[in-house]
Amino acid sequence: PGTLAEFKDLHTYFYTEQGIVKSVNGVSFRIGEGETVALVGESGCGKSVTALSMMGLIEQPAGRIVGGEIIFDGENLLRDGGKPVHRLRGHEIAMIFQEPMSSLNPVLTIGEQLMEPLMEHLHLRKKEARAEAVEWIRKVGVPRAEQLVDAYPHELSGGMLQRIMIAIALCCRPKLLIADEPTTALDVTIQAQILDLLRTLRVETGMSILLITHDLGVVAEMADQVIVMYGGQVIEQAPVLPLFRNPQHPYTQGLLKSRPRLGQRVDRLYAIPGQVPSPIGLASICRFSDRCEYAMEICRTREPENRNTEKDHSVACWLYEEGSDIVRSVGASQR
Ligand code: SF4
Ligand code: MG
């Protein structure tokens, strides 16, 4: 598919009293038209900050995008101090969060919250916007749309609210939906329904999805491409099948070994000992070296770069340095 969006060497830092937190430290990947790209990793690896950078939602003044580009539809969103983001947000790029209650307005009805973007971005008149709002409530599978259009958020269940969030995000027909842990707060049955809904709407609208998740079960069901992040960097990326069949980075192998099912969170299952590195003052080493069973001398003195091992599969790990014998022995021990 053609490219819809591209992150190029993105750096987003937070300036704290303890030091500079390099939450996103040189992240590059692309999102194809109509593709679902999953950003995977433990809490604190930089997934959400990557997405928030695209949405222009990095909290100032502590947080700052200090380098790189985010291209969307041929335009660098970061130019002019991020002005293009403000034009496109909620319209061409929309986002849904884990907690619908925190992003819905408690004093406005469901209908009003749907009508607002329809009137602002699609310039519908009030009556048309209301009809369209009812239609969207129906489309996301919420019953009694005619009545619920006048209900307030507290009158709906968590699963219903998540559907309403999806309706609000999609009603202006965005080209890209960013979904940050969209089902983590929901019980397993509702999760599966919401994922089904997202898949159906993706096919219907042709939108791309940037899916942020801990949950490899969700990745397996939803993603075309997988980007694995660790310590603010991309350490492996591949289409979903090669990544699950032949994970190359020791971290990815560890994530997959825990074989989580739908609804389980990787950060609770994760079996590799040790902690996610503090992103303060990291030296140029492999960030995974103190948790890696294959760590070598070079891992603690030089940072591995992403290199292609297959056409669409790249990994940042010294084991895959060209001509390395270690590659073969690790590969063999996998089988
Ligand atoms: Fe392990 Fe070295 Fe690869 Fe890092 S570069 S993941 S320490 S083998
Ligand atoms: Mg997060």
UniProtKB/TrEMBL annotation:
It is a peripheral membrane protein. Pfam families: ABC_tran, oligo_HPY. Keywords: ATP-binding, Cell membrane, Membrane, Nucleotide-binding, Transport. It comes from the Bacteria. InterPro entries: AAA+_ATPase, ABC_Ni/Peptide_Import, ABC_transporter-like_ATP-bd, ABC_transporter-like_CS, Oligopep_ABC_C, P-loop_NTPase. Signal peptide: none annotated. Its main location: membrane. One of its GO terms (molecular function) is ATP binding. Gene3D superfamilies: P-loop containing nucleotide triphosphate hydrolases (3.40.50.300). Transmembrane segments: none annotated. Residues 5-256 form the ABC transporter domain. It is found in: Cell membrane. PANTHER family: DIPEPTIDE TRANSPORT ATP-BINDING PROTEIN DPPD, OLIGOPEPTIDE TRANSPORT ATP-BINDING PROTEIN APPD. Belongs to the ABC transporter superfamily. This is ABC transporter ATP-binding protein. It comes from Paenibacillus chondroitinus.
